[in-house]
């Protein structure tokens, strides 16, 4: 049995935990864009990543608080300590959720349901946060169960009852079914997971293509052979920032991108991971997203080299930004080397930029991330909307 543990409205729950005056009241975390909403605010239709003005229109009495990323990171690490005290087999998914393998603990810890109940109680007692846990025999179904069990709940899908639970659910519950795929399925009167299961693999492949068709056919029958894995290294390192809907000059967007590259490359050097592929992510006023990527000839963790590539990608997308308005910018580096080895070029002398990066890292590590800032970021705040996973 597998547990999927997912903290409820994580950022908002931390704010309500730390400020008793916010408990039981609608809370929005964010600036121009809602990064998190408490369940009291969600009851009015507020969702992420909705603009703050739209959220206020739906819930005028909501209390807006700025994000405190350091508080969320601290809370996340405390929760993951509880996870690892429960079982050594923990697979982080994001800052606020993870899969846990508990099948081998029956003799010493009891059934999966008993373990899940203790886990929820421990997170509440030690960290003061609500958490929902889904329990099932596959990772896919455990995650679906946790979603159905929210908020602050526990939902167990017993062996043998999986399809009875799964098939009445809407098609959007299948991983990989977004608005476009859902619309294509509903055009053919395929509304539930059970409908998908009855269509047949060949028909789904013809409708959606080989990969998507086989994938959805397998999930509709609860076929998910993936196991909970530990010790996996990230395939990419990135950061992004919600900009809100206010007007910003292109120079301001470039300044934010440069600050994000600073943050990403600092983490790369700390993890000893060099990368080759730089990806810039953009989200527009209509919530549509685009990405632009470029691969370098050799892996690097230099701030300057990655920043130059990122800025070039941003400038290539400038026509879209000018036409559609920008609400989020992000950057990620992938194709990471496993040991951080960087091949030197003749005459085998490290570039001066390596020394500058190392000096900046030492200052920030000793005195904090804000000890050194780019001049064009003075007076501006940078709030990443998706923090890094716990170590």
UniProtKB/TrEMBL annotation:
Q: Does the keyword ATP-binding apply?
A: no
List the active site: 97
| Catalytic class of the enzyme | transferase
Signal peptide (residue range) = none
Report the cofactor remark.
Answer: Binds 2 magnesium ions per subunit.
Query: Please, one GO biological process term?
Result: SOS response
| Residues annotated to bind Mg(2+) | 6, 96
Annotated site (Substrate discrimination): 11
Key word Ribosomal protein present? no
Known EC number(s)? 2.7.7.7
Q: Which residues form the UmuC domain?
A: 2-178
- Keywords, comma-separated and alphabetical: Cytoplasm, DNA damage, DNA repair, DNA replication, DNA-binding, DNA-directed DNA polymerase, Magnesium, Metal-binding, Mutator protein, Nucleotidyltransferase, Transferase
According to UniProt, the reaction catalysed is:
DNA(n) + a 2'-deoxyribonucleoside 5'-triphosphate = DNA(n+1) + diphosphate
InterPro entries in the record? DNA/RNA_pol_sf (IPR043502), DNA_pol_Y-fam_lit_finger_sf (IPR036775), DNA_pol_Y-fam_little_finger (IPR017961), DNA_polymerase-Y (IPR050116), DNApol_IV (IPR022880), PolY_HhH_motif (IPR024728), Rev_trsase/Diguanyl_cyclase (IPR043128), UmuC (IPR001126)
Gene3D superfamilies from the UniProt entry: 3.30.70.270, 3.40.1170.60, 5' to 3' exonuclease, C-terminal subdomain (1.10.150.20), DNA polymerase, Y-family, little finger domain (3.30.1490.100)
* GO CC term, one of those recorded: cytosol
Could you tell me which PANTHER family the record lists for this protein?
Answer: DNA POLYMERASE KAPPA, DNA REPAIR POLYMERASE UMUC / TRANSFERASE FAMILY MEMBER
Q: What assembly does the database describe for this protein? A: Monomer.
Primary role: Poorly processive, error-prone DNA polymerase involved in untargeted mutagenesis. Copies undamaged DNA at stalled replication forks, which arise in vivo from mismatched or misaligned primer ends. These misaligned primers can be extended by PolIV. Exhibits no 3'-5' exonuclease (proofreading) activity. May be involved in translesional synthesis, in conjunction with the beta clamp from PolIII.
Report what the protein is called: DNA polymerase IV
Give the species: Actinoplanes cyaneus
